[in-house]
Please model this.
Amino acid sequence: MSNLFEIKVCGINDDMSMNTALKCKVDYVGLVFYQKSPRNISISLSRELLKLRNETTKIVALTVDPNDDFLNELKKYVNPDYIQLHGNENSRRCLDIRHKINIPLIKGINVRNKVDLLKTTKKFEDVCDILLLDAPSEALPGGNGKKFNWDILKDFKSKRKWMLAGGLNIDNIENAIDITKAPAIDISSGLEIRKGIKDSKLIEDFVIKCKNL
Model:
């Protein structure tokens, strides 16, 4: 894998896509546990997909405003490397979750402008392990295929690792990295042939493109 930036493929929900992502040695695979998402999977399906996992790719369980019971279920039956919080969780709730389940956290943050970005990231960088900077939510909190103004991230620095998300695809990834210098990226809808359905060739081609940047 290129050392330029890490790759997270989110919304994996079938054997073929999981196998492809793992074969391509992506750094993170995201499994979506949110019923309103077209990429939603059950805990039982996730357990089947996890039988394919390798020793290097990290597993991320994406949730939206999860309650404690569901988080405990995820820890017991999925035991992901990271929990991604992609709802309206505030920093206090993130800290609460961290103490209760003791799993590293990724926090999704909507990027609207530079002032808001700096203010928001300051709230979360002491309680979360990775910040995921995404386009503002529309119908769904993420996975909408919409990009934001990447110029906002020029010269952005954080004490935590951060990921660029929102509308990334094979045609714009080079420009996105040139502008933002993101240390990690998250892609979902840009690897789909239709909403919620990943395509193995798109995954392979995207990773190859990233390796050659």
